[in-house]
Amino acid sequence: MSDSVLLVEDDRDIAELIRVNLLELGVETIVQDQGDKALKMALENDYSLLILDVMLPEVSGLDICRQVREQKPSQAIIMLTAKSSETDRVLGLELGADDYITKPFSVRELQARVRSQLRKVHVLQAANSADVVDNNGPLVIGDLHINQKNHQVVFQDNELELTATEFELLHHLASHPNQVFSRSQLLESVWGYHHSGYEHTVNSHINRLRAKIEIDATSPQIVQTVWGVGYKFNPQGVEF
Q: Helix or strand or coil: residue 212?
């Protein structure tokens, strides 16, 4: 099955630019310029990826992101934001977006972001396939079980509902206990690109992950900050 993208953008020139360049990747792009119609389409159909402009008629891209994330936790989402609007970028990530692209953007940047998200989608699809064989078995650290075969995370006998990106971030950190990763290193390893200025992406995902896995997210014991450097996974935090 080919990949499909629902692009929600009310600027026709930008929408056509994105559609043409995603076509080069072999991606089918469905364009919608009305937020309310786009939300209905996103909830009723299965798309590999949603690309949402923030400012839309009727329903904003941020509202679409929030409602889709609530009903479709694994849906891949990229936000389109104005270069000067840091608030929109941070809010979009906090509402559940996997990544964001600032306008104006380069074709190379656009394609890199989309390829990165589609790669995660393909991994998740493979994980849900009955034909997948997990030769390594789950990663078990204390009371934390991370199963790559079905993208399942269980902590203290409770299954955590993580997005595909949150899962990859946790798995990467837990696979290297006590190793400190900078934000740039995490961008490259988890998101698949290295681009200065996108550290908000890492910070917001760390905060979202902590909210789901830490007993007290304000005093994290599992995913810890190493000030001035980055983040690390503390294995003692999951051993009870």
A: helix
Q: For 145-203, what is each residue's pLDDT tens digit?
A: 998 888 889 998 899 988 888 999 999 999 999 999 999 899 888 888 766 667 788 99
Question: Which CATH number goes with the domain that contains 225?
Answer: 1.10.10.10
In this structure, the answer to whether residues 99 and 199 fall within a common structural domain is no
Q: H helices then E strands: how many in the chain?
A: 8, 11
Number of domains in the chain: 2
Q: Which two tokens stand for residue 119?
A: 């790669």
Per-residue pLDDT reduced to its tens digit, 131-144? 444 556 788 998 89
Residue 65: CB atoms within 10 Å = 28
pTM: 0.80
Structural domain span for residue 146 = 139-238
Collect contacts of 182-189 with beta carbons under 8 A, ≥24 apart. Answer: 182/229, 182/230, 183/230, 183/231, 185/230, 186/230, 186/231
Using the Cα atoms of residue 145, residue 73, residue 126 and residue 203 in order, give the sign of their dihedral. Answer: negative
Exposure of 189 in the CB half-sphere (CA atoms within 13 A)? 17
